[in-house]
Amino acid sequence: VQLQASGGGLVQAGGSLRLSCASSGRTFSSYVMAWFRQAPGKEREFVAGIIWRNGNTGYTDSVKGRFSISKDSAESTAYLQMNSLEPEDTAIYLCAVAPNSAGIGRSEDRYLYWGQGTLVTVSS
């Protein structure tokens, strides 16, 4: 599985960005695609995930109501719409796939395939 993340950039606080994660290669009957982020000097953390089969989603508390994850099955692409961005959202955002998963795990250990990451910088 190859994952290509894009859409990062520099935005002012309160602004919006949409990240994309295009997948290709091997497919699975049931899998989860998720976004993680890693800020400088901090551990990688789960941001949002989507169960590809049924579209169910999950979010970390700090982004609920501001971020929305969605998918385009025909394009094998997941999106992360980020609104009301805050300086604390500054990080490298990575997409990942957990194969053969029925639920949205928040531990990075469950995710076997990772994209290269895209940098999001939110200025105050």
Polypeptide structure, described:
With 124 residues, the protein is mostly beta strands. The chain is built from no helices and eleven strands. Strands 2, 4, 5, 6, 9, 10 and 11 form a seven-stranded mixed sheet that branches. β5 and β6 form a beta hairpin. It is globular. The termini are far apart.
Could you write a compact summary of the structure shown?
The protein has 124 residues and is mostly beta strands. The chain has strands spanning 2-6, 9-12, 17-24, 31-38, 45-51, 57-59, 67-72, 77-82, 91-99, 113-114, 118-123.
Helix content: under 10%
Total of helices: 0
Average pLDDT reading = 95
> Uncertain segments of ≥5 residues (pLDDT<50)?
none
Terminus-to-terminus distance: 37 Å
Number of strands: 11
Rounded Rg: 13 Å
Compressed to H and E, one letter per element, the order equals EEEEEEEEEEE
Structural class estimated from helices and strands? mainly beta
Largest sheet: 7 strands, mixed
Q: What portion of the residues fall into strands of 2 or more residues?
A: over 45%
How would you describe the shape?
globular
